[in-house]
Amino acid sequence: MRGALRGRGARSAGAAAAAGLVLVLGGCSSGGHGVSPLLSPSASRASATARPTHGTAPSASASASAAPVKGTAKVTATVATKLAQPWGVAQLPDGTLLVASRDSGKISRVDARTGEVTPVGSVPGVSHTPGGEAGLLGLAVSPDFGSDHLVYAYFTTESDNRIARMLYDPTRAEGEQLGAPDTILRDIPMGLIHNGGRIAFGPDGMLYAGTGETGRRGLAQDVTSLAGKILRMTPDGQPPADNPLPGSLVYSTGHRNVQGLAWDPQGHLWASEFGQDTWDELNLIKPGGNYGWPVVEGIAHRAPYIDPVVQWHTDEASPSGIAYAGGSIWMAALKGERLWRIPLDGTKAAGPPQAFFTGKYGRLRTVVAVDDHTILLTTSNTDGRGRPHPGDDRILKLTVS
0.85 exceeded by the pTM? Predict the structure, then answer.
């Protein structure tokens, strides 16, 4: 049945795990309203030794110095232009970028030094309805890319959302560099809206996926459904033995539409999430945690639901991708048309969120951290909901602090 926990075989959801409130600081902003590897792959692997390698959340006592309350962000270059509906972005070990076109199902290669864009191939079976949010969404590169050359994609078909991996061979002809997809997870519920789609490998080597509840609210609280969840799986799509629910991919529940995933150097998992009419959220993810949708939205102080660390009015954010750099979470805003900086002090905000580029580049989709002071940011003005500027869509290079 659709929504059951399936990869290559049926999986039992297990029983719901109760989750207590976490101690967080909710910082509201006063401003107006696309994983990809967080660091360069070599830096990510090097830092993983200092991070948890299991499904248990890191101790709250493991914290770095608080980030400055105020930071900076400056666009230093335009990496690429004239991209069609860019969504997922994945960085290869040589710095090359792979970019997913949501509507067409095509993947392109972007030379980050020259800006040259060349076709890699298409993911077969991708389905997109004009005006909707389905299609080719998140991309991720295998942690063992140097030896297995695998690229992972989250995408919508006519019947479900699924995750597949493909062999990437740049020696083949342009447009024919992707092997046949090997589906590792299928039957994630799909809809016209709220398909989630962000995928990223964590410092533990596991693949995480943010899903949406497809507009069917009850699925977010249904642990037998993959919708409205953060999922955690092995690179083969199997439930790790240390997941919160035995035999289940479900890592956290009660999500409306998870759009961004990122880890800080202490191994904490952060996720951005679309609210409905009132509050968008940045959440600190705990294994087995319940984030409340549709019972609560935003900071509610209602056990057993976990409150967001920061919340925004929906016209200020409509958040998409996030990345960690320079002591802060950097969050792209779609409707809000700005880049948010959320300075961190361990597991709480060190100060109020700070907005950059409000209205300057239009809708913003995906953030990729290249190093601790450099991020890449994509626009999303050709997605049917924006006002394309000349040269859109584009990838911008930023220096941040």
Answer: yes
Could you tell me if 377 and 364 are in contact, meaning their C-beta atoms sit under 8 angstroms apart? yes
277-319 confidence digits (pLDDT tens):
899 999 999 999 999 999 999 999 999 999 999 999 999 999 9
Planar angle of CA 17, 61, 372, nearest 5 degrees: 100
Can you tell me the distance from the alpha carbon of 370 to that of 168, in angstroms, rounded to the nearest whole number?
21
| H helix intervals, 16-136 | 41-48
Q: How far is CA 303 from CA 57, 290, 312, 340, in A?
A: 19, 10, 21, 28
* Residue 290 CA: distances (Å) to CA of 58, 120, 201, 283, 312: 17, 39, 22, 11, 20
- For residue 393, give the DSSP letter: S
Residue 125 CB contacts under 8 Å (≥ 6 apart), including other chains: 105, 155, 157, 158, 181
pLDDT of residue 27 exceeding 50, the answer is: no
Token duo for residue 145 = 């890319």
Two structure tokens written together for 324: 């960690």
* DSSP string for 193-227: S-----EEE-TTS-EEEE-B-TT-GGGGG-TTSST
Beta bridge partners of 148: none
How many Cβ atoms from other residues are within 10 Å of residue 65's Cβ?
10
